Amino acid sequence: MCVLECRGLSKNYSGRKALENVDLKLSSDRIVGLLGPNGSGKTTLIKLATGLLQPSGGQILIDGQKPGAETKKKIAYLPDREFLPDYMTAKQLLQFYQDFYPDFQPEKASAMLENLGIQESMRMKKMSKGTKEKIQLLLTMSRNAKIYLLDEPIAGVDPAARDYILKTIITNYCPNSLVIICTHLIADIEHILDEAVFLKEGHIVMHKNADQIREETGKNIDGLFREVFKC
Fold first, then answer.
1. For the chain, what is the mean pLDDT?
2. Residue 150: CA atoms inside 13 Å, Cβ hemisphere, count?
3. Parallel, antiparallel, or unpaired: how do β-strands 30-35 and 178-183 relate?
4. Residue ranges with strand state E in the chain
5. Which end of the chain has the smaller Cβ count within 10 Å, N or C?
6. What angle do CA 111, 113, 118 make, to 5 degrees?
7. For position 231, what pLDDT does the model report?
8. Residue 134 has pLDDT above 80, yes or no
9. d(CA 102, CA 27)
10. CA quadruple 218, 223, 227, 229: dihedral sign
11. pLDDT at position 60, please?
12. Of all helices (H) and strands (E), which one includes residue 90?
């Protein structure tokens, strides 16, 4: 079932084209890599899906609806930067998400906190950068969402933290949902991908099943990415 669709989607910033005439259909029960170098349009597409940006042309549909109040209830979004208040404790953050999102599952979030060895009384400002990113991820993945939009979830963290983040993603997203992972670190995530979408200068240059890529090209996704985007 298609839960995210782009129809001739375009977005301009002061005359610069971030996305141009993008057509794309993504279905539920898939983990999809939205892959491309910096400036390729990945984050713009994610923000259009959340409703944080408005298209310059065409449209994007979430479960058949234009982004708005109703679609926000279906999307769990992890931005590519820290967004939680430094003064809040882990316990306060869980309560905040429970108050704000009806689909939030506090028991799941508490279990992940315990696995990380994070005390509920600990404040964000006392946490390391990697721990903050894990907190943001576990809050996002504790939603019972239809679509998870994860923008650069493994950028800037050490290999051990990346392993934890990927394990958290694949073991905690809801069945029959769509997970979109936006990144340029292909080698670290390709083993969990069902599909890959390559974005280059605002255009989709490839959208294929991960196994199909390997069978047709004889390369893994990272190898093909390096070939397509070589300088």
1. 92
2. 31
3. parallel
4. 2-13, 16-27, 30-35, 57-62, 75-78, 147-151, 178-183, 195-200, 203-209
5. C
6. 145
7. 61
8. yes
9. 24
10. positive
11. 98
12. helix 90-100
- Between CA 102 and CA 49 the distance in angstroms is 20
- What predicted TM-score, i.e. pTM, was given to this entire model? 0.93
- Token digits for 164? 């934890």
Tens of pLDDT, residues 176-201: 899 999 988 888 899 999 999 999 99
How far apart are alpha carbons 29 and 173 in whole angstroms? 10
Give the model's pLDDT for residue 53.
96
Q: At what angle do helices 106-116 and 129-141 cross, to 10 degrees?
A: 150
Percent of the chain exceeding pLDDT 70 equals 99
For residue 192, give the DSSP letter. Answer: G
Residues counted in the chain: 231
Quote the CA–CA distance of 68 and 147 in Å, as a whole number: 14
Integer CA distances (angstroms), 28 to 11, 62, 90, 174, 177, in order: 25, 11, 31, 10, 5
Contact partners, residue 192, CB within 8 Å, separation at least 6: 31, 166, 169, 170
Better pLDDT: 229 or 60: 60
State the Cα–Cα distance between residues 221 and 13, nearest whole angstrom. 30
Rounded CA-CA distance 151/79 in Å is 5
The DSSP line for 134-165 is: HHHHHHHHTB--SEEEEESTTTTS-HHHHHHH
Q: Which has the closest alpha carbon to 48: 37, 61, 64?
A: 61
Tokens 């301009």 belong to 12
**Given this model, what pLDDT does residue 3 score?**
96
Find the radius of gyration of the CA atoms of the chain: 18
